[in-house]
Amino acid sequence: MRIRTRSTTAKTVAITGGARGIGYRTAEELIRRGHRVAIGDIDEARVKQAADELGITVVTRLDVTDPDSFKQFLDMVETELGPLDVLVNNAGVMPTSRTHEEDDDVTRRQVEINLLGVIFGTKFALQRMLPRRSGHIINTASLAGELAVPGLATYCGTKFAVIGFTESARQEYRKSGVHLSTVRPTFTNTELVAGTSGAKGLRNAEPEEIARATANLIENPRPFVRVTRVAGGVVAATKFVPRRLASGLGAALGADSVFLEDVDTAARQAYLDRVRKS
Question: Residue 155 catalytic?
């Protein structure tokens, strides 16, 4: 399927984790808006299928934890599409577990993919963008990078770190002409939340909503955006109330159980198996 585009200032955009979910929908939205898009993903078969569906010609297997793989991806993008204008560091994984029961290899993969991959991508993109004094790096974080969630301790840790890293780098390069931003989604209806029911009274986001937020950031850069507006408002409000009250609100929303007692492990198994193999 080739998506029709509309008139816009076309940019060269590289997206990690583009085979499915938020990455796929972001590529779809950016193509619709007239941008030149390349995608990479650790799942080579699926990312090539996604590229065929989207009409993308610049596609490759990408391991964001391997510096050489990441550099080769960006080299390919610039050779085929021109200087890199935007990097969307989207690749991420979200296993659920009690902290003391989490497999060591699963812990390591979360840190490597969710955090180290973002750091590598940001560094390599900066090296290309700074001499031109233009560019935009968008790192996909999470509202779980602002609010602690039981059952996701390592995941939350990586997303807190992504926000801290991006904010620090943004300050460092604020006069360089290069923008750095984070997208902070609530739990989104992709494989990452398979087998979970979400917070009580708050709907999950759809990946198309995150895609639109990312596309809007490219067109109107700012430090971060929270999605959805309601979930983002709740998270922002917890910063201004006593900790006990914030914890009570989290419990009322089901945060204490949604990723622990209320998980359908069978429904998550295929996703967890893929995380371990990635």
Answer: yes
